[in-house]
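Usage

Read records sequentially. Each one opens with the input sequence:
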Amino acid sequence: MAADPTIPFDPESLFEMARRQVDHARAPYSRFRVGAALWSDSQIFAGCNVENASYGLTICAERGAVMNWAAAGSPGVPQAIAIVAQDEAGQWVQAMPCGACRQVLSELPGSSDLQVWIGNPQQGESVPLSELLPRAFGPEHLSVRED
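and closes with the structure output:
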């Protein structure tokens, strides 16, 4: 990936952090290991998938990265998240965020501008979250304001 002066962060660094997180994934059931890296306030917040025998309790890499951002005090407005995955054979594969992750990402500050980078460390593409989750349901539908 060539450097793009219009992007305020280095996608290669974001992908590299996501790739490192794949090594930490706990995927004993699916053997589908995912890493994610969220860019906000000139910092990278990483996450990996952690599976549970009660599948509904599994935490996806994207939500793990968001939780790490929140645990750090929710600094800045997230601008991008990179997502990488390896299948059971160890091959890099493209992985889109699941519906639950898209919903969580949609409630981040500035989510209308959040770029979702998918692919692998050698090549990737950027898709706006608004394209992945058009007409998202959010706090505004509940007459709720975040403090």
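Summary fields computed downstream for this record:
- The first strand starts at residue 33 and ends at 40.
- The two ends are 39 Å apart (CA to CA).
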